[in-house]
Amino acid sequence: MKEFAYQHATQVHEALTAVARNAGARYLGGGTNLVDLMKCGVEEPTRLVDVRRLPLDGVQVAPDGGLVIGATTTNSDAAAHPEVRRRFPALAQAVLAGASGQLRNMATVGGNLLQRTRCGYFTDLSSPCNKRIPGSGCAAIEGVHHNHAILGHTAHCVATHPSDLAVALCAFDAVVRYETLDGTGEIPLEQFYLPVDDRPDRETALPPGALITAVVLPGSAHTPRSCYRKVRERASYAFATVSVAAALDIRDGVVRDVRVALGGVASHPWRARTAEAVLRDARPTAELFRAAAEAELSTARPLRDNGYKVALARNLVGAVLGGLAATEGNR
Ligand SMILES: Cc1cc2nc3c(=O)[nH]c(=O)nc-3n(C[C@H](O)[C@H](O)[C@H](O)COP(=O)(O)OP(=O)(O)OC[C@H]3O[C@@H](n4cnc5c(N)ncnc54)[C@H](O)[C@@H]3O)c2cc1C
Ligand code: SF4
């Protein structure tokens, strides 16, 4: 690991200034991803600006019934908060499906959104990787890629995004709030992660030096009936093979509103807009759920060894929607 300077910031302006003034400076949340990447030489910051003492911790209920979750709130605190569990149960389930208890105690909401891909070639400095070194190639396309993307990938990168939290936030139309020295800004989560295109090293729409200060979840009457399910290679402590976050509002025997997002299938959380359009205003049956999933997956382009994810995603969407339809409030 290369030598680096370290400082704690206690005010947002202090953190922004420290990063703006020092080329190579980075914010440090819980360090559970950044420090790992420093150890293997993928990241080489010259200064770490620790954000955990900034006044950005905690969960507030917004006037519209939504939530504002501070960026330095730990994953454990976010998942345990009674209003998160009550208003957005899929969000609490998603966070609890990630990592381990120790990691969740350290990891912050802001850091979770900005964690890097778990593609093995990304952290193997001897392999070509366009995300690590633009233009060097992609070892995964012809290499080990059974857990890589089936949607939205390009010949430049086929990696998936690892965050469970981001999948639930995507389903709930969350907005990422940030601060720069020029002021405050907001980006809908659905536009926060950039499409892969030919520059997989450019991952988010955050302006340079921006500090994430919160995620904002708009209030919604039916998100209390939501669910997150994650399929993975081990029962715990493993990233998603495929995951689904969904909320379903059925009234008078018809789907009035629905949200579906997929994880583990693309370089970013995949909002299943095509499936939602099939479901809206239709009678909720197992056939409809299957048709919606099939419509969403019709654009899937599996790689040599990950075609199984298409059937898995299709079945998981059907199972999650079927489970939600069977719950008390949706009969
Ligand atoms: C063994 C293991 C298993 C895991 N399993 C899962 C899993 O199943 N699901 C899952 O979702 N995650 C999983 N994780 C990832 C874990 O959730 C992330 O490492 C963690 O959420 C990152 O948060 P952090 O605060 O530690 O980020 P850090 O490592 O501190 O930072 C990550 C990035 O975010 C930047 N950053 C941090 N805070 C801010 C901010 N406020 N504004 C702007 N930039 C900021 C940093 O500069 C850095 O680039 C796992 C991690 C490990 C090590
Ligand atoms: S899939 Fe993306 S992260 Fe993995 S080797 Fe290819 S370019 Fe790198």
TrEMBL record:
Keywords for this protein: Oxidoreductase
Organism: Micromonospora wenchangensis
Domain FAD-binding PCMH-type: 1-222
Protein name: Molybdopterin dehydrogenase
Organism superkingdom: Bacteria
Cited Gene3D superfamilies: 3.30.465.10, CO dehydrogenase flavoprotein, C-terminal domain (3.30.390.50), Uridine Diphospho-n-acetylenolpyruvylglucosamine Reductase, domain 2 (3.30.43.10)
SMART domains, A to Z: CO_deh_flav_C
MF (Gene Ontology): FAD binding; oxidoreductase activity
Chain coiled-coil ranges: none
PANTHER family, per database record: OXIDOREDUCTASE, XANTHINE DEHYDROGENASE SUBUNIT C-RELATED
Record has Oxidoreductase as a keyword: yes
Statement: the UniProt record of this protein carries the keyword Oxidoreductase: yes
